[in-house]
Design goal:
By secondary structure, the chain is an alpha/beta fold. The protein has twelve helices and 18 strands. It has two domains: 242 residues, Alpha-Beta Barrel (TIM Barrel); 118 residues, Lyase, Ornithine Decarboxylase, Chain A, domain 1. The structure holds pyridoxal-5'-phosphate. Pfam families: Orn_Arg_deC_N (PF02784), Orn_DAP_Arg_deC (PF00278).
């Protein structure tokens, strides 16, 4: 997006504010579907947890996407956005049997990732087809919090438990219509990913009634200059070929599914915040903004490097700044960043603010959460109002001590 458009949004809707570029989401969606154009049945299920605004969900629906959900509330959001239950897959981890049953009753595809729930569910609902989340134990790099494929990960059913899994299926007579994996958040080495896929194919061959194989996500997007990203085109070429061969061996045309979150929305997002104070200490120049990790937690939580620009003075002389928030604990967005000269009142722009940014925001320090704006067809559309003090106290029940 152009700086003048971003500035106009900050002016019209105030700061801090999240801005999402619909065109970028569209082009990422296209890029992924183009990469897999040789696969007859492709299904992209956008991972709602990355950015769950209803207008964003509706936009993805318009593009042809389905949804990947991890809670019943995400399922409800999807239904509210107009997705039919068949377009939604539910991949929870550690949720109650009651919630899984409730979602199944809505007609949403269930994906089960542990043997205990599988056995209970199969005994009670043998006719409801279920997808199984497999853990192939392949490390896909990245941050340890987002690598979920390793041996002692809480996610998925271990490939070492396939015999036990098959026994449960035989005993309950349940139907398995899908096999799934989601190994982590960084597919950088395509050969490693294809190796995990081989394990999934091998597992899939034990099941006779499959309709789809879901390869999860893990597409890496660049955050800063020089970052490597998943080569989606190469992955598409290699995995499509292998998938089509598998379908021939299997004897049926299966659907190839992915469930990207970050890939579709990360780069579409911009977070705009105003500089309240420039503070020079003996060693550092701090730029303190009208926001904090209550609005954008990724730098403090995952050590994520969001590129920061001063869009009020993009051509100014560059200096080193440490950009900090207003939360009363260490709240650093970026240390010693080279940013064009900052004056109080300038608008800073954080890149890659589409995925896991607003959706992880909170009211910590009793601050309201920012507005969200969708930039669509050359115009700004407010898609979530900035909260007010009323929202902070909404559910509080005041005890009368008189
Ligand atoms: C979070 C999640 C995704 C999306 O991951 P990204 O890294 O954002 O693409 C996909 N599938 C499952 C099961 C997830 O939990």
């Amino acid at each position: 997006m152009q700086n003048n458009h971003l500035l106009s949004v900050a002016e019209a809707f105030g700061s801090p504010v999240y801005v999402y570029d619909a065109e970028k989401m569209q082009s990422q969606y296209q890029r992924l579907t183009n990469a897999f154009s040789k696969v007859e049945k492709l299904r992209i299920n956008y991972a709602v947890k990355a950015l769950s605004n209803l207008s964003v969900l509706k936009l993805l629906k318009k593009m042809g996407s389905g949804l990947d959900t991890v809670s019943i509330q995400e399922v409800q959001l999807g239904l509210l956005a107009g997705f039919t239950p068949e377009r939604i897959i539910y991949t929870p981890n550690g949720v109650s049997m009651e919630e899984i049953e409730e979602v199944a009753q809505l007609g949403v595809q269930i994906n089960i990732d542990n043997l205990s729930i599988l056995e209970q569910f199969g005994a009670k609902h043998p006719t409801t087809p279920v997808c199984i989340r497999i853990n192939p134990h392949v490390m896909a790099g990245g941050n340890s919090n987002i690598s979920v494929g390793h041996i002692d990960s809480k996610f998925g059913i271990s490939i070492h438990q396939v015999p036990h899994l098959l026994r449960i299926i035989e005993n309950t007579q349940m139907h398995i219509n899908g096999i799934h994996m989601h190994t982590g958040s960084d597919i950088l080495d395509i050969e490693v990913f294809l190796y995990a896929a081989e394990i999934l194919f091998e597992t899939a061959s034990h099941f006779k009634e499959l309709e789809f194989i879901d390869f999860g996500s893990g597409f890496k997007v660049p955050y800063k200059k020089g970052d490597i990203e998943t080569n989606v085109e190469e992955l598409g070429k290699k995995l499509s070929r292998r998938f089509n061969t598998f379908c021939k061996e299997y004897g049926r045309e299966l659907t190839l599914a992915f469930e990207p979150g970050k890939f579709l929305v990360s780069e579409a997002g911009y977070f705009l915040a105003k500089v309240n104070v420039v503070k020079q200490t003996t060693s550092t120049v701090f730029a303190g903004i009208d926001s904090g990790f209550n609005h954008l937690i990724r730098p403090m939580f995952y050590g994520s490097q969001h590129h920061i620009e001063n869009i009020s003075n993009p051509k100014g002389k560059e200096r080193f700044y440490t950009v900090v928030g207003y939360i009363c604990e260490t709240d650093t967005f970026g240390s010693n960043r080279r940013i064009s000269e900052i004056k109080e009142g300038d608008i800073l722009c954080f890149r890659n603010a589409g995925a896991y940014c607003f959706s992880m925001s909170s009211n910590y320090n009793s601050r309201v959460r920012p507005a969200e704006v969708l930039w669509y067809n050359g115009k700004a559309h407010l898609i979530r109002e900035r909260e007010t003090f009323e929202d902070i106290i909404r559910n509080q029940v005041i005890v009368d001590f008189e």
